[in-house]
């Protein structure tokens, strides 16, 4: 039974719903009617529609006249496109952060990685990781955000956040493991090592290896993005292989 919330602001719903859009809760191409979420958020359909339009502007939802709002379709081509875009922004943002980051920035990066490594080691031992995916997605973002945080360009950092969200949306739509596997842990450690050594080229290579591993996993599993909700169906019974 859905619990009705009271007094949820449009901004609060925007933040909450964005997290759901990039955590694999909805299938690629799924129609999302504003009325469906009225009781859950305690908001009218018109206010929810405004939130959906904002998310559409960020390309996290799609809309067409007479067809309503939908999750973006998933495809290998879109994954490749968002991967390249995110890599470009994150590598350049990290490079600029290395030039401007101070000891406090480095300490925050260590702390963000510590939190991320903790949850990823837990996930590596779990039979079903779905319950922690929203938390992991948030903590994963925090690590990559801190990596970029000393970059002086607000425009670049904002574009990077959108590229992160759109890329994650593609990954979770296609892979039943939501993009996590044991190799994720040392990949994040490699990014941290390169960052604390202020080695921009090593960091770029580490970020690239991390992102392209998702693409390689798709090829390895022969996952067909055109199946739409296939990943959502598969992940109901999917376990993470740790051997």
From TrEMBL:
Protein name: Transcriptional regulator, GntR family
Pfam families, sorted: FCD, GntR
GntR C-terminal domain span: 81-213
Stretch list, region Disordered: 219-243
Gene Ontology molecular function, alphabetical: DNA binding; DNA-binding transcription factor activity
Keyword Zinc: no
Gene3D superfamilies, per the entry: GntR ligand-binding domain-like, Winged helix-like DNA-binding domain superfamily/Winged helix DNA-binding domain
UniProt feature coiled coil, ranges: none
Domain of life assignment: Bacteria
Keyword flag Protein transport: no
Record keywords, A-Z: DNA-binding, Transcription, Transcription regulation
């Amino acid at each position: 039974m859905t619990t009705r919330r009271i007094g949820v602001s449009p901004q609060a719903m925007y933040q909450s719903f964005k997290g759901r859009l990039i955590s694999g809760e909805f299938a690629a191409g799924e129609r999302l009617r504003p009325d469906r979420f009225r009781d859950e958020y305690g908001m009218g359909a018109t206010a929810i529609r405004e939130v959906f339009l904002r998310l559409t502007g960020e390309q996290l939802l799609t809309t067409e006249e007479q067809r309503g709002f939908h999750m973006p379709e998933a495809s290998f081509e879109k994954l490749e496109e968002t991967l390249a875009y995110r890599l470009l922004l994150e590598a350049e943002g990290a490079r600029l952060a290395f030039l401007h980051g101070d000891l406090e920035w480095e300490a925050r990066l260590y702390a963000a990685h510590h939190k991320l490594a903790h949850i990823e080691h837990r996930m590596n031992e779990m039979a079903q990781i779905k319950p922690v995916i929203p938390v992991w997605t948030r903590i994963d973002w925090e690590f990559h955000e801190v990596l970029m945080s000393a970059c002086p360009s607000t425009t670049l950092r904002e574009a990077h956040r959108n590229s992160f969200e759109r890329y994650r949306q593609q990954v979770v739509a296609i892979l039943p493991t939501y993009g996590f596997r044991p190799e994720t842990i040392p990949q994040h450690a490699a990014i941290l090592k390169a960052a604390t050594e202020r080695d921009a080229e090593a960091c770029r290579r580490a970020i690239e290896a991390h992102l392209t591993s998702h693409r390689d996993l798709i090829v390895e599993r022969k996952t067909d993005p055109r199946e739409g909700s296939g990943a959502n169906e598969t992940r109901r019974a999917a376990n993470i292989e740790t051997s």
